[in-house]
Amino acid sequence: MSAQDGRRAGGVAGFLRDNGLTLAFGTAFLLVLAAQAVAGRAEFNETLAVDGFQQVGLGEYVLSSDFAVDVTENWQSEFLQFFLYVFGTVWLLQRGSPESKEMHKAGVESDEEQRMGDHAQAGSPRWAGTKDWRQAVYSRSLGIVMGALFLLSWLAQSIAGLAAYDGQQLRQLEAPVSWTTYLGSADFWSRSLQNWQSELLAVAAMAILSVYLRQRGSPESKPVGAPHHATGVEG
Amino acid sequence: MSAIDARSGGRGPSRGADPDPDRDPDRDPDPDPDADADRGRGPARDRKSGRSGPRGARALATVLLALSVAACGAPASVRGDAARAAEGFGAALAAGDLPSACALLAPGTREELEDTARQACAQALGEEDLTPGGPVHGTEVFGRQARVLMEDDTVFLSRFDGGWKVVAAGCRPVPDLPYRCTLKGA
């Protein structure tokens, strides 16, 4: 980080500027989640009305397993995307993409390149300068956390999905199923796979399109004038 | 997730280690095409991509906590309410108090009964081949839906503003298909 990057403005305006990306996407997340709840409840109530069941209020729907499974099935796939991307880009390259490392850097790289152990610098995180398990954990912490969040949200999807599925089973005068049975069900895998395929498509599209296309000013893009074959260059 | 998503053992004597009628030897092998027609897809799912940030972790933790609490079991009072409604329906049938039994029917079930029989509910109910369910062996509740396993019957209920109502009664399991029920909604 350069000295210019490190300079922070004071006050509310400074806070908003320093955290604009997080605040904007965080706020949008909450708004869209609320909109999903409204739309999801309307759709759920249509189903209940057709079958002659009591419709539910917004508060009850937000606390329902039907809403929870619709939310968590998307969350798990997002964290899976990041987990695969973080680990995959250690070894997998894409010539010309700013999402890829340079072609000769495939792999975990040397301690010197990664500023680890004896090569840690003054501003390096403390665990990066160690040589024991702390370094091993910290050097993989981003992927580990993303993987753990994926597994936890996938578990949440399975629990909420089971409750929603069993509620639907009862509405259809069918017997509820166990968690283990649900894990092998078409409903569980349909929800999972349809999200995974979309995440993988998005990653593949970003990797290849960023080779040839540019977005002026975005760090996700190469500089507009960068050649197509330039790899690992961000704008 | 609703806090009332859960299953419970029965309050009466246990029928065995596995109360699931899917594995109950007392099966009716005759599938019911009408019941099959009741099947329908659940609410469509939201799905999408795009990158989310680590901000999701806090919300995820909240959801996981709620799910964990819910997974620990539904309030006994909720399961008890559903079981009592099923017992009340059976008791009304046993006593010949058909108006009371009708009052415990879900609106759609009552309407279907009257439309099919072209009679008032109490008269139509009296012509149905229904027997009192007897003691409750198990109750499962998911959201506003419940299944109550009784000695001589399986009853499906749903929770309305006026409490738990019988959606279907006189139900027998059919392998890989919905229950075949003597009394049910359209």
Which short descriptors sum up this protein?
heterodimer, A: 235 residues, mainly alpha, 2 domains, elongated, B: 186 residues, alpha+beta, Nuclear Transport Factor 2, Chain: A, 6 helices
Structural class of chain B: alpha+beta
Architecture of the domain at 75-186 in chain B in CATH?
Roll
Please trace the helix and strand order of chain A, writing H or E for each element. HHHHHHHHHH
**How many strands of chain A?**
0
* Order of strands across the main sheet of chain B: 1-2-3-4-5-6
- Uncertain runs of chain B are 1-5, 9-53
What's the helical proportion of residues of chain A? 55-70%
Task: Report helical residue fraction of chain B.
Answer: 25-40%
Instruction: Tell me the strand percentage band of chain A.
Output: under 5%
| N- and C-termini, Cα separation of chain B | 28 Å
In short:
By secondary structure, chain A is mainly α. Chain A has helices at 3-6, 11-18, 20-50, 58-62, 65-91, 111-114, 133-138, 141-171, 179-183, 186-212.
